[in-house]
Every structure is written in structure tokens, then in C-alpha cells.
Structure of DUF4142 domain-containing protein:
Amino acid sequence: MTKFTRWLPVVALLPLAACATAPKPAPMPQPPSLTETDITFLDKAARSNDFIIAAAKLADTQARDPHVKTFAARLVTDHTASQDRLKAIADQHGTTLPDDLDTDEEHVLDSLKAEKGRAFDRDFTALQIAGHDNATQLFQAEATNGTDPALKAYATDMQADIQSHLDMAKALGQHRHHHRLHH
């Protein structure tokens, strides 16, 4: 009897397994397991993409400066493509991307949602400078120290996009600053 109860939890975890009569297809060869460094990068990069996309989508209705709106649309396109590539790598390893943001990021998004016009433009631009600055370090570290070839290639390839977004955000910040001085 004790033997039976010990196996109960295992049986409970395998619903439908007994019903599957069709032979299972041969599993795809799994790449080597991700290291702690790679998993941490995967999580942080996914959250970074999600956060930037969520913030950029707000610009569509809340930004005043057309340049900010154009920049935000570019961010949505590029970071969605980046997230899709990251998801494909996660799928290969049989893992999933986090679908939630950090608490701090949630708070920042809530603050942004409450802003409109010039205040939104100013804070959104500052946020993207800080966010892409952090991403630069994150992606450089993975490109140097990561062990998974697909993740290393992803981190290396994305650095050009991140730098380009950072330059655009800084240019926007300067443009807004000069604009203020002349008014």
C-alpha cells in the first residue's frame, strides 16, 4: 500500500499519458542545457524587450512630438522582431520566456500611462536612453561570456540595433532640449 501511495503524485502528473496509443515522434535532438548565465540573460533580455514595447505602444496616443511617435514605432517593430528571435531560441531549449515585468518596470509604466504631451515625451525619451544603456551592457556581457551559440549570436547581432536606438533616443533628448531653449 505504501508503494502505491508513493507513486500517486507521479501518476497525477501524467494525465492522458496512458491514453496515448499512437507512437510518439522521435524527439528533436536537444541542444545542451542553458547555463545560469544564459538563463539570466534570456530572462532579462525578454523583460527588456517587453518593457520597451509596452512603453513604446503608449507613445502612439500619448506623445506630442511626431519624432517621438516615429521613434516609438521603430522600437515596437525592432523589439518585436528581437523578442520573436529570442522566443525561437527558448523554444529550442524547451524553455519559455517570462511573461511578466519586474515590479519596478510595472510602476514606471503606470507613471507613463498617466502622462500626456510634453511630459510624456520628456520621460519616455529619458526612459529609452536609460533602458538602452542598460541593454548595451547586458548584451555585451552575453556576447562575451555566454556559452550557448544561438544566444551569443543573438546578443552580438542585437548590439547594433540597441546602439542605433540609444543614439536616436539621445538625439531626441538633445532636440527637445534645444527646442525648449528656443521657446
